[in-house]
Amino acid sequence: MAFNRNHARPLCSDAEYKLFTASLGDEISELTPAQLRSKIQRTRRLRDKYRDLFKRQRLANRARTGTKKGARPETNVRTADKARLFDEALARFQARADKLAAAAERATKRKASKAALKSQIAEKKRVGAQRAAALGKARGPSGKAGGATGYASESAHGSARDKLARDTRAGARKGHKSAAGSRSQARRDRRG
User: Fold this and answer.
1) At what angle do helices 14-22 and 33-65 cross, to 10 degrees?
2) 109 lies in a domain?
């Protein structure tokens, strides 16, 4: 049987009743993780207290009545009900704490994945800049290794270097162009 406010009010003291009502849906959602931990401890202590009390009462009744169960229907009912009531409240508090912990873990993973993605992007940019710089140093704008820049400004040289770094077929086209020039020169030489 699930306990509600009407069942709990006659069983509990004022402090116990406040703790029980804090475990219900409308109030449990407002608790912070620290408050939840505190309420879990208090609820667990009360549940254990009433379980132990119920066992002691049953053993005392067993000795008094001589029956194996040691329980008469009218005795121990309130104590057993209070133990079950706090067991249910503890389960609700624990479920809420688990839900908050899972949400916090998801948020942490999300932040970590965003940070990893940012670092990957930064690494790709750094590697690309290094490649562009290496490509610019290896070849001057004239296509000769280590040649003079021949540009009016350093920014124009940088722009051409960046364009060359982005253009992956530039070397092949340059090779085709120089080969075409060599072929046409060879034709002129044969005629002449």
Assistant:
1) 130
2) yes
Q: Please count the structural domains in the chain.
A: 2
Question: Domain end: 124, 142, 161, which one?
Answer: 124
For residue 158, pLDDT beyond 90: no
Number of H helices, E strands in the chain: 7, 0
Residue type, 112: A
- Compare 79 and 171 and report the one with higher pLDDT: 79
Say what the pTM is. Answer: 0.55
Q: Is 79 in contact with 87 (CB distance < 8 Å)?
A: no
Q: Can you read off the two tokens belonging to residue 148? A: 């003079």
- Name, of 23-32, 138-147, 158-167, 172-181, the range with top average pLDDT: 23-32
Q: Give 92: exposed, middle or buried? Use CB within 10 Å, 0-12, 13-18, 19+.
A: middle
Same domain, 114 and 22: yes
Instruction: Quote the longest CA-to-CA distance of the chain.
Output: 134
Domain containing 179: what range? 153-191
Inter-residue contact 17 to 8 (CB < 8 Å) = yes
> Which residues, other chains included, contact 63 with Cβ-Cβ below 8 Å and sequence gap of 6+?
70
